[in-house]
Amino acid sequence: MSILPExxxxxxxxxxxxxxxxxxxxxxxxVLISGLMGLGDLRKIGSGNxxxxxxxxxxxxxxxxxxxxxxxxxxxxxxxxAMAFAAPDAAQIASLAAFAGHCFPVWLRFKGGKGVxxxxxxxxxxxxxxxxxxxxxxxxxxxxxxxxxxxxxxxAALAPIWAAxxxxxxxxxxxxxxxxxxxxxHSANISRIIAGTEPKIGASKS
Length: 206
Description:
Blueprint: H1 11-25, H2 29-36, H3 52-56, H4 61-85, H5 88-103, H6 116-126, H7 128-145, H8 148-165, H9 169-185, H10 187-195
Helix pairs in contact: 1-4, 1-5, 2-4, 4-5, 4-6, 5-6, 5-9, 6-7, 6-9, 7-8, 8-9
């Protein structure tokens, strides 16, 4: 049982879809929405993160919801267009690149978000049952423990397992790679969780 799709695309094709995925993922919707709505520079608010959780700290729930949807959507779009015009291996490259684009956008000097919404959007597009399982894992953990970062870590950690259990073995490798990146981007949060100082959902600081 393979945890990766067959490699059918050429290097140039995969590089092309990697670039497309990166450019889509690098669109900083949180920064753009906050600026357009007059909420200030998101990088100077709360944790300084460009994702939906930090947008929520501005007090504007609509802006936070829009950021969540668009950050998830750009990951999904990267996967869906690659799946429509290329092979599954190129779609996985596009998804990894979209995630990297969100976390390390060239437009913001490679200082981006932590990738949770983009991660879930990718899973929903590439294997929707796995994506649903990931979203439910996040939701249940958030409702139980009220810690956004811990919910993200739980959803990421279980994603490769969900992929295997739900019959999407060729997505397991991608899910595992994204999980490692999620944990890397949350290293500071993990330290605070261990120390018992990680703020709960709704707190003013991260």
